Amino acid sequence: MNIGELFLHATSASARDAAYAFADAGIPVFPCLPDGKRPLTPAGFHDATTELTIVRSWWATWPRANLGMPTGAASGFDVIDVDTGDMGTGFTALESARKAGLLDGEAARVRTPSGGLHIYYPTDPDGDQRCWQSAFAHIDFRGEGGYIIVPPSTVRGIAYRLSVLRAGAQHPVDATALRELIDPRPPQTPNPRDAIHHADPDRLARWVLHLQEGERNHGLFWASCRLVEAGYSPTAIETTLGSAAASVGLSAREIASTIRSASRQGAPQTATTSPTWNEPRASTRRESDAPWLA
Fold this sequence. Notes:
Elements: H1 3-10, H2 15-24, E1 30-32, H3 52-61, E2 66-70, E3 77-82, E4 84-85, E5 88-89, H4 91-99, E6 108-111, E7 117-122, E8 132-134, E9 139-142, E10 147-149, E11 154-155, E12 158-159, E13 161-165, H5 175-182, H6 192-195, H7 201-209, H8 216-229, H9 234-247, H10 252-265
Antiparallel strand pairs: 1-2, 2-10, 3-7, 3-9, 4-5, 6-7, 6-13, 8-9, 11-12
Protein name: DNA primase
InterPro entries: DNA_primase/pol_bifunc_N, PriCT_1
Pfam families: PriCT_1, Prim-Pol
């Protein structure tokens, strides 16, 4: 019995009977809070097992428990978790992934109580794919180190239910490609020491184009000073850097004022001066240290 058939069976079974069926099929399970997502066993999804004696004892203790399944190598399945709610929906990003050809090879789809979606894929036999979260795209990936709640479990009285059962060829999803498509990393701000020692106008303009809020005025001033040192007039500097500065949000007035200040400052006082830049932080919307649950 494959995962889709197990879900089909679960639509007419209790969570306890579904747990027995999963364990009998070689897919480890564990009990979660009735009508909730929190594991009831001490080590959570790490306690998941296919040992029927243990599974029976759990559901004898918690007969109304929801059914949890670890993702990754333990179960043999990775899951794309599409969220939807007041903060936004992941279905827009999902459609982009579909158009990019990144969703082929799925085994099944399960509709979640919130109206979201779980898309199941076989794990990659050549390497573990770790869990990640994109709050920006409202899509999570549940792989190694995560777990999900499976049918016929309920949350707020609404059941997880099979939506689509695929009969064709199945293969792992490329979680790295999916993440880069729906939630690409922000560009790194170049180090001025690496990029600008010879007052190359094009490189200076490209550098200004990557300035972030809080560093734009200072960065434009510093780049303008480099061009002053190279003999550029204020008009020539504005022609060289003005478009890039406007693209990062500086007004025409700010640009003109900053360039005039750099021209008045002059080369002798700025030749050894360079701004101190902090290394850009990793985007917090892509990281989470919390356990992965659905």
